[in-house]
Every structure is written in C-alpha cells, then in structure tokens.
Amino acid sequence: MPEIRVTPLGAGQDVGRSCILVSIGGKNVMLDCGMHMGYNDDRRFPDFSYITRNGRLTDFLDCVIISHFHLDHCGALPYFSEMVGYDGPIYMTHPTQAICPILLEDYRKIAVDKKGEANFFTSQMIKDCMKKVVAVRLHQTVQVDEELQIKAYYAGHVLGAAMFQIKVGSESVVYTGDYNMTPDRHLGAAWIDKCRPNLLITESTYATTIRDSKRCRERDFLKKVHETVERGGKVLIPVFALGRAQELCILLETFWERMNLKAPIYFSTGLTEKANHYYKLFITWTNQKIRKTFVQRNMFEFKHIKAFDRAFADNPGPMVVFATPGMLHAGQSLQIFRKWAGNEKNMVIMPGYCVQGTVGHKILSGQRKLEMEGRQVLEIRMQVEYMSFSAHADAKGIMQLVGQAEPESVLLVHGEAKKMEFLKQKIEQEFRVSCYMPANGETVTLPTSPSIPVGISLGLLKREMAQGLLPDAKKPRLLHGTLIMKDSALKELGLAEHQLRFTCRVHLHDSRKEQETAARVYSHLKSLLKDHCVQHLPDGSVTVESILIQAAAHSEDPGTKVLLVSWTYQDEELGSYLTSLLKKGLPPAPSGGS
Amino acid sequence: MESAEDWLVESLRLYQDFHAFDLPGATRVLEWIGDKGVFVAGYEKLKKNEILHLTLPPRLSVKENQGLFPERDFKVCHGGFSDRSIFDLKHVPDTRLLVTSGLPGCYLQVWQIAEDSDVIEAVRTIAVHEKEGSLWPRIAIFSSVAPGVLHGARLSGLKVVDLESQKVTYTSGVSDSEELSSLQVLDADTFAFCCTSGRLGLVDTRQKWAPAENVSPSPGAGGGRWCAEVRGQGPGPSIASLCSDGLLCLLDPRDLCHPVRSVRCPVSTPSPDPELLRVTWAPGLDSCLAISGFDGTVQVYDVTSLDGMEGHVEPLFTHRGHVFLDDHGTGAAPLVTTHTWHPRKPRTLLSAASDASVHVWDWVDLRVSR
C-alpha cells in the first residue's frame, strides 16, 4: 500500500532536538539533525539506531536536509555524519552552510574547553561534515536523484532558515523547520505557495501560545535601555547574529534621535569584522523589499552608533555596547561584562538562549557569584535581562501556514498530545484535514493514493476506436492490454514484479534419446551463436543467455522430439530468432554416432 | 504608522509594563480564574466561536527577577468551541465548570474544563424560561459547596438555579419586566442588580422580594442605558453607576435614591454600543475605578478627586493603546468591549477591543513622584 511514514527521532517527549525521518515513495529523508542542549550525555543526540539497526545509513538514507543553523536543528550533524557514519548529501541554504560550521565550532569549544567533555566531535569532523553539504537556493528545484526532488522556501525566523518541500512523483511532504508568519524588521515572514502537499510537518512548540506583539517587545527593550542610561548606567548587549544586532541598532538609533539622547552607542570590533561577510550573505538572501528598506544602508552609517575601542569600557558615564560573542563565553563581550558586572546601575541584556557552561547560561539561571579563571569570584550586581527576539510561529501562525499550503494532512511535532487536543480540533475543523501528533519514536503512517502516469500505445488506442463508439468524456471506457511498469512505480505501489515467459514448441524428427537430441542442439547452437553464451547444463537442458531449451519425447510419436524453448519477455528478440533457427532443423548427426 | 510609533515612545513614560495580543476572535468577556488565568470567548454570529483559557505571561506573576523571564506570551491552556455568540462567561470558583450566556436562544450553557487534556467541553444546558428575542440573561455565581447560578434578562425572570440538581432555589417572584443590564453576587445571600434604566437594587435572597433600591431612575436617564458595579471593600461610596450619555454616579448603599456624587465624564457620546458599557472598581487601590465602552479607550478615575458638581472632570489615566495600535486600518476605529483589573497587581488592567486585540497594561500614576 503506498504510504508516507514519519517518525520523529529522539527519546522522550523533550523538545529541543529536531530530527525527523520521512519515508516517501520508497525514498528515505532525514529532516534536521539537532542537539538537545539540556543534556550532557548521549541523550542529547537523536536515537539514530532507530533508522536501521543493520546496514549503513548511507545506503538507507537518500539525503539529509537541514532547515537552519540553530543548534537544536544542526548540532548533532557532525556526530551523525562522522562518528555514526553517513556519506550521502546534506542539503541546506547558502547562509546556513556559511554559519553552521561557526556555531558548531563555537559549541565544540565550549563543550571541550569549558566543560572538559571527551568523545565530542572534533574541528576536523566539522570540516569533513561540511564537505558533504550541497547548498540550495530558494525556490530552486533540486533533483536529488531521478525520482526525489526538494525545494526550499523562505521561512523567516533567522538568516538562511528555510522550509523544504520533498517530492517523489506525485507525493510530497513539506517540512517547516522553525518559521514565523509575522515579519521581523530584517527577516520578513515565511511564505509558501499553494503546493498542496500530502503532508505538512510543523513544529508545535509554540503552537499553544498567543504571541505578544513585536512592538511591545521592542518597547520593553527601549525602556530597559533608556532607564539604565538615564541613571548613568552602562548597557551590554552580547549578540551573535548580525541581522538581529542591526535591527536593534536601527531601533536604538531612531529612539535616540527622537528623544535627543546623548549617551554613546557602540558596535564592537568583533562584529565589524564579521559584518562584511554576513552582509554579502544577507544581500542575496533577503527579498527586494527588505533589501530596499533595511539592507541598502551601509552597515555603519549610523549617526549615533560608533565603532568600539576596548578602552571605552572604562569611560565614565552611560553607554550602550553591542559585542560578541552572544553567550558571554569568551572574547570581548565577556571582557566588558567582567568590568561592568559589579555595578548595580549597569545592565546586561541577553538576547537569546545560552548553552550550558557559558557565563550567559549561568547568569540567566540566576547565579550572582561566578568563579572565573584563577579562582577569582565575580559578584554580579548589574541587572540581568533576558529578552527573546527570535520569532516562532504561534497558533495563529500555524493556521496561516496551513491555509497557504493547503496540505491534505498536518503533523505536529514536539508538542505534548494532551496539551494540543484543542489545536488539533481547530485545524481539523477549519481545514477539514487530519491532524497527527506523534511522540518521539512513534511512527505515523499516512496512506496515499499516488497518481501514476500511464502511456498507451497508439495501436491500442486505434484498435479501441475501431470498435465503433466515439469516446465520451463523461463515461469511462475499459481497455484491455498489458501494463508494463518500471521499477519505481512498482516500488511505489508495493507490487511484486511478474515475469512474462514465452514457451514455444519446436518439433524435430529425431529418434534418438532426448539427451542426445539436446546434445545435438547444444553443439549446433554453439557453433552458430559465437557471440552468445551457450551452455549445456548437467540436467540435459541447453541455455542461450537466459533462454532455456529442453528436449522432450513426443507423447505419441517416438520418432519426434519436442524442443521446449522458453524465454522471458526481455529476451523476445533472441527467443524468436532461436525458435526460427531451430525450426529449420538440426544438421545431420555426425556419422558414427549411435 | 507614525502615530503608533509616537504613542509607543510616549508609552515608555506612561506605562510600567505593556503587552498587546491578537486573539483569534474578538471577545466581550474577560473572566479571571485565580490571578494567573483569564477566560475569553468569541461573539461572532454564524461562525464557530472559541472559548479560551489563557495564562498570563509568567513575568507578570513573579515578584523577583522579573528580568529573567523572557516569555511575554499568553499560553492557551484550554480551549473549546461554541456555536453561539458568547456575551457573558462566569467561572464557578473551586470547580472546573463555566457558565456562559449568549445568543441565539435563551438558555445558559455549562462547560467543563477537562482534567487530562486541554479541551473545554459543553456538558449541559440550563433552561431559562423567558422567551426573549434579542435579550440574553445576565449571570452571576453564588459560590458555595452547592454553587448556584443567578440569572435573568428581566427582573421578572430573576432566578437562582442549583448547578448540580438544576432545581430553582430562588425566584424574584415579581411581574416587573424591566430589562437587566448587570447582576453581581455580593455574599452568600445578597446580590445587586442594575437595570438598563438605571434602577439599582440590593436583594437579600433569604427574604421575599424587598430590595433596597432607588425608586426613580437617576437624573439624566433620558433614553440612556445604565450599568453599575458594587465595590468589595474600602471607604466611601461603594456603588458606581454609569450611563451611556457619560454620566457617572457614586452611591452609598444606605441611600440609593441620592447619589453622593454625579459627574459627566469627558467621553464621546452617545456610546456606539451601550451594551458594552462597563464600570469597575480597582480591587487594589482605595478609590479608583475604570470605565469603558464609549470608544477605543479605557479611562481611570480617582473618585476622591471628583468635584461635587457636574463640573469639569479629568480621568487620572486614559489607555489609548487600542486606538493607536490598530493595525487593521479598515473602517471604524476599534471599540473597547470589556476591561478588568488584575486581582493582585494594583495598577494592572486587561482590556479587549472589537478588533480582537487584548492589552495587559500597568499604568504609571503620574501624580506620584518616582
């Protein structure tokens, strides 16, 4: 029965480790390969043994697709490809390809250097893994093999994030990864056409939320910065993603202008260096509208924002500084943090998730005393603010996307089924589709009715037409014929291949025993068919390639032998030739035989 | 929108906290469950409406380390579907039950919040024997071991029904067919009613119908529609009544015939939909109340600062968020459909508007130097 099978991998109900296995039209695709950031042991990786207990992953999987560079979607990739073993293609967008290795390396450094982990993937493994990557462009149909194609769609969320359509014949699945339907200033909203996939797979972590407006988040950010600066304090904003940093800069710049504020705003050198690199990535990635309103301006043509010099950190008075890295685990942002942490007038605004082991993670857990190198204890008196700027789709967003794509069914991953019964009902009622919510490790099987194109020979059609009645567009006509199918169609329908064999009887006058007749046939054919493989088998039969010739006695006439010549449909030509050859009769036996 | 940006910058000064949400459908209901959750419900005709149980973002509930809670979103805890428009919703305290009233059809619907899933299911109906075309019964809950539902669209139809047995335990027994605009349970035995004409009364259910009430409607009735609310505790006059022509009266329950104070609020009148009128007392502030239903704003007043005459009054605070953040830009400006005070945080309110927006805002008392 043709079907699509989906299994979210990984143990337990935990969120934070995206890795989904899809079987469609006989192809196997792995969607994302994420790391669970909360665990320190093997639980952080998806359970790959599920895929195939024997046999190589490379043989089983046709490709791997990575939706975006967040570690909970790509963090386990080097482990998977280099330590577990996978050599097939890995597809992702260009920005993802550029940024992934940087994040993976950062993460590796933290895990190995800061937390002293052993058995972690190495820098070389990251490089080797990235060599298997094939970068794709938006809306470009990529032919993975003859039957499997994929296409990336814009997902918003972060730079390079994409939703992927996976298509085999007439069946397709769309995987959203993380996306958002409300536009950011620098990223825009996700978009997909009415592609009507059999199945839409979407993350449902935020499916049961109603999102606070972007304006209110920005307001909160401005308020915090303003209050700190008003009381003479300093604000540190550790950032990684350049797009986000630029968005916040534009926000602050507009605000500074309107309120006529004088406190300096700085952009650290670490960011400046990466700026041109990301700028180029960005420019080809975003659409025309965003390019015009946002990207066109030079990165550093801000009136109020200047390049940072580390000496400025000691300047008295209020200021705002954007610095890397984003989790305060090293470099300039950590340096500045150490200088400013002791003053309660100051503030640090953490704009996103921080990996365990980093200073960012510790202060976000509420720690107020940190042990630094050389056993120095740092007391944190500065205000710590955790702000979430990256956008995910909430209930409304999911409904919007389902409305755009018009799938036949919807599958929600990473939610607790009991807590999403209402959403399931809502989707089912509004769109009249089935909605599935498998737990990790549970397989959902969707029966599909694939359409298989059939070619009809002109001769067959003409014969039917000759039978009289003209074809009626509204009435079906039954045709009889032989349906020949290619392997892939057979596989899709789950049918076993039939073998078509022809058997022809050739009568020969020969009063000798069957074995001798067979031997004569053998030597005759051997001499004639020098280009073919002719064999005389122990049981007396003769083969020419895969054609079988057997001699039997005629039931009524002992002077006649019957040659049974049998061949498969594929050998029709040779079979017919042999038959006509044999019908001409055998050369006279050499005298002296018995 | 330029004015939205301007207003947001202004808002830095005017509000401590501000959140704005878009519901799937506009609500006329904001009913608390505890101090961390609210119910909202849709009121569209000819469409399936949703009842949602929303939890407030955690940062609004914590006292310390607020900064460490990045989540600013409502969480949909439970949800259900209703074929009718819902105009009123009450939660039965200490139970998993809800009672709603709406149109079409004059009956009350009882709902149950599932324990092991996130679904709100309709369980039974409570018949209301008044046959009314476009009137819907107001509801209030007598919470006790055996909760009772007080309901009625007119004085003559006022009843209390035991939720479990569905037996009628109280009836007003009067033939007066005045239309009701609000009902409020005050304690185990008393409730207050307000008619659309402005007639107010306090009723003791242990006695035959003999409410303490104002016999003639308050001055300025002239076709206006009234609503009222009784304050839980606090000094001074404890009843506030509001008319759709902007008149606000403060009354003492001992003398309902003579308002302690009457003022005309600076609102655009007449209210485009007088059914949406609402006046509420602040549970956490001694002498503040809020009004809404005239336009897209919510106004907060300090009653001690109101003049004795119908003089010039200014609100202590006006929430204009629904006007300025209206993204929809089509047709009429949004109208505030309802508002409510946070049970614990003194200056925090929730307000909902006809464009399906819900705001949570904590206004700054500008009289107090910070």
What structural keywords apply?
heterodimer; A: alpha/beta; Metallo-beta-lactamase, Chain A; Rossmann fold; TATA-Binding Protein; 3 domains; seven-stranded mixed beta sheet; 17 helices; 28 strands; B: 370 residues; mainly beta; Methylamine Dehydrogenase, Chain H; four-stranded antiparallel beta sheet; nucleus (chain A)
Global Rg of chain B: 20 Å
Biggest sheet details of chain A = 7 strands, mixed
CATH level 1 class label of the largest domain in chain A: Alpha Beta
What pair of chains forms the biggest interface?
A: A-B, 42 and 40 residues
* CATH fold descriptor of one domain in chain B: Methylamine Dehydrogenase, Chain H
Q: Beta-strand level of the residues of chain A, as a percent range?
A: 15-25%
Number of helical stretches of at least 4 residues of chain B:
2
Q: Percentage of helical residues of chain B? A: under 10%
The tally of helices of chain A reads 17
Portion in helices of chain A: 25-40%
Largest sheet of chain B: 4 strands, antiparallel
Work out the oligomeric state of the chains in this entry. Answer: heterodimer
CATH architecture label of one domain in chain B: 7 Propeller
Global mean pLDDT of chain A: 85
CATH superfamily placement of one domain in chain B: YVTN repeat-like/Quinoprotein amine dehydrogenase
Q: Low-confidence spans of chain A: pLDDT under 50, at least 5 residues?
A: none
CATH homolog superfamily of the largest domain in chain A: Ribonuclease Z/Hydroxyacylglutathione hydrolase-like
